[in-house]
Amino acid sequence: METVGTDRHEQREDLLSELLKPLRLTGVFDSRWHVRAPWAIEGDAERSCAVLHYVVEGDCWITTDDEPPVELHAGDLVVFPTGTAHRLADRPERQGVPLKAVLPERQPGTSGEIVIDGTGPESRLLCAGLHYDASAATGLYTSLPWALVLDGPQVDREPLLRDTLRLLAAPDRPVGPGDRLITLRAFEMALVLALRPLLRELADNPASLPLLRHPGISRAVVIMATRFAEPWTIDSVAREVGMSRSAFTAAFRDLVGEPPARYLAARRMQEAGRLLAETSLPQSAVPSRVGYQSAVGFHLAFRKWFGVTPGEYRAGEASAA
C-alpha cells in the first residue's frame, strides 16, 4: 500500500510539473495603481491572458460572480490563470467603473497608471495582463481554479519571486525599447515562480483539482504531455491506463475540459512549433520528433492547427525575430 501511495504522489508531481512549464508570453501590459478609498474597478474577462495583481501597500478586495470575496493585504499576490472577470475595490460591496474607462489603451508592451484620489486609506498595486500563446494553453491549464492567491508570508518564502515583483513594481523601473523584452521575461518568470508553490498546495489537496483524483486520467495526461513523440493513439493510451476507449474519452473530456485527441494534438503541435521556431532541426526531422510517422499527415495536421505550413511558420518566426 505504501508503494501505491508513493507512486500516486510521484504521478501527481509529474502532472503538476507540466503546469510549471512556462506558457510562452507574447506580450505584457502592466500598470501601477495609486488609489485612495473609496474606489472600485471592474475588469473584463481576458482571452489568452493571465492576470496578476501584487499588493505593494494597503489592502483591497477581489470579487467575481458566484465566488466569495477575497481580501488582500500588502505583500499578497493573486493570479487569475485564465483572466476571469473580476472587481478590485476597497470594499467588497462597492460598485466599480470599467477598467477600460480608466485605462482605455492596454496594448501589450506598454505600461499605464491609475490614480484615484479619495479621502480614505491608500493602496498601491502592480497589475499586469500576461498574454500567452493560446495554442499552448491546454485543458490542463484552463482547469486551474479561477484565482490563485499567495499571501505575503508565502511570497516571502520565495525570495526570487518576491524580489522580482518588487523590482517590477518600482516606480523608476526602466521602460525603454530594450527593456521591454526584459520586462516580458521577468513577468514570465514571476508567473512560473508564483505557480510553483500554488501547485504544490494543489498536490497536497487533490480535491481542489479534480483531475488529480483520477489515477487513470492523471497518468494519461502525463503520458501525452511527456511522451508525445511515441506513436500513441487514443486506443493505445486508454489501454495503457487500463480503461475502455469510451470510458477514457468521457472521463478525460469531463476532467480535462477537452477531448484526449485534441489534448495530444495540442502538445504535439506546441512542440513542433517550438522546434521550428527555436532550433535549426531540419524540417523533415520534425514529424518523427512529435509522434507522426507520416510527413504528409504531419503537414496536414500542422496546417490545420496553425493555419500555415511548417515552412511558412518557420519563415514567419525568422522574419519576426
TrEMBL record:
Q: Where is each HTH araC/xylS-type domain found?
A: 218-316
A Pfam family: HTH_18
The record's listing under SMART domains reads: HTH_ARAC
Work out whether the entry's keyword set contains Transcription regulation.
yes
Question: Gene3D superfamilies of this UniProt entry?
Answer: Homeodomain-like, Jelly Rolls
Keyword Acetylation included in the entry's annotation: no
Keywords, A to Z?
DNA-binding, Transcription, Transcription regulation
In Swiss-Prot or TrEMBL terms, this protein is called AraC family transcriptional regulator
Organism name: Streptomyces wedmorensis
